[in-house]
Amino acid sequence: MASVLVVFPMIVPLVAALCALVWRAQPRVAHGITLAGSVVHVGCVGVLCTSVLTRGPLVHQFGGWAAPFGIVYVADAFAVFFLSAIAIVSCTVFVHAFGARGASSWEPFFLMIVVGGASGAVLTSDFFHLFVCFEVMLIAVYALMAVQSVHARERMDRTMRYVVLNAANSLLFLLALGVLYGTVGTLNMAHAIEVGAGSWRYVLLAMFGVVFALKAGLGLAFWLPQAYAGLSIGVAALFAGLMTKIGLYALVRIGMVWGIETSWIGWIAVAAIAGGVLGMFVQRTISGILAYQIIISSGMLGLALACAHDALLVLALSDMVAKTMLFLLFGTVARSDRIRAEHARMAPMLVWCGVLVAGGLPPFGPFVAKALLLFGLVERTDGGDVAMRIWLIVAAGASLAVLLSLIRVAMRLTWSSDQRVHMPVWTRLAVVLLLVVLCGIGLGADRVVTYARTVVLSDAHVYVKTVLGR
Amino acid sequence: MSETTIVRTTTVFVVPIIFVFAMHLLVHGHNAPGGGFVAGLLGVAALVLLLFADFRANVMQMPAVALCCAGVALTVCTGVVPIFFGKSFLTHVHGIVSTTLVFDIGVCAAVCGAGIAVVQAFVGDEEQGGS
Fold first, then answer.
1. Which residues in chain B are closer than 8 Å to A62, comparing Cβ atoms?
2. Whole-prediction pTM value?
3. Can you tell me the distance from the alpha carbon of A248 to that of A100, in angstroms, rounded to the nearest whole number?
4. How many folded domains does chain A comprise?
5. Residue A280: inside a domain, yes or no?
6. How large is the ipTM?
């Protein structure tokens, strides 16, 4: 049963989390366990990845129950692409966490649960299981927010807002599931494609769309900067890499099932980008600037979803890695608390590499992604489409704005000479690892792009055939 | 926390009933409404009642996290063990006793443990704040 491989990316983090819970009295041991578990996770994903790439998609039926009735995990090329990004990002976050002093003893446990939930959400082909995976992730996130940060009152305030918002969102998710089961009569994605939703399609699209747009920070991102401000470096880095992108992944799956409303998503994405840019320029703190960059990148991904599918995959992969790297790198300054960013000074090489990454300049991965997106938009403008021109201008302008804002940050960090911020060795190692990955994506762009083009997102027939076998 | 005589007296009668009903849900959960999760929640409810009665110290000393760990471990085992026999993840065997019962007991213990841990944390905080 080669297909058993598919469940391991979900089981391994759970087992590692369990072990971390058992040994939580010794934080070093717990962190060591989660780091080891994360390395095993990367290994599992690697094996799964090569298997899927060489022998085609794998399907695993829980308990041997076939697709429309049982829960099914599907590892197709698209899922595997996201899964590898999750594995890389989470592994480096655990490398950083291993070196972090004074972290709560609960932190490794909850971080691992987030990784397990994310892996499950990517692999599942069942809407209700998707809901469960999101809840698993969210509960761990609530706990991390409550455990983290210094100022109790402020922390509870932020956590409460996030909890209330997401509880409401989960309720809407549940309602949408009810409507889905009531009208279409199935919870399996492939079966839902096969049956079709008829006139209920728009209702379902709207409900699931709002749910996942809020999670992805696409358009509905008002909660995001607040939520990120109170987190510790590692947690913020993991969130930056995972949370919004998983929402986007679910959005793509919804699009696969009921079709994508291209122009809607495009305009929402453009609005998100514009709002993000405006918000970013108002910010004075580094963490604020970074938080708004997540909103901008969500918008970019939305734009890619609307009009350039090959860019979407490369953008998602490089953006997950890049955002985690930026949060790890600049988080050290932002959190080495109450030092005004103007007076801090830290590893200049890494900081300027960070600027290249965030601004989408060669030789790093985001450059390839951004180029693909812009070329995709340029191709579409040939027909004299005004909307496409506006989208193109906004996308290009936003990437310049991001570059500009980070150059300002980097100038402050490297050219003033007052206080040196010490960057822990493990964090430095994590950042360098991520830089190497980004560099690999940039230099091996040829292969990555070729691969991304073979993954056809919206080919529902292939998916149905894989899952249901007919 | 106010502990009236009424609460204390009824608790002694009500808690066993809740536990029995929880066991009923646990055992019947495979083919009927119920299951490990609900049984676990009921167990937590019963223990919270005990907290209001004279058994606060006992509840506070329960090894909640250990119970939770054991439950999760049991659940994961029922999922992973079939893999070694070449079956799918979470494949169950139905003999005299079905392995789904083992799974449900694991879920029940996990939910119960986590619930008690939460309650302990809240009550512990309150006691610290009060003193």
1. 88-90
2. 0.90
3. 30
4. 1
5. yes
6. 0.86
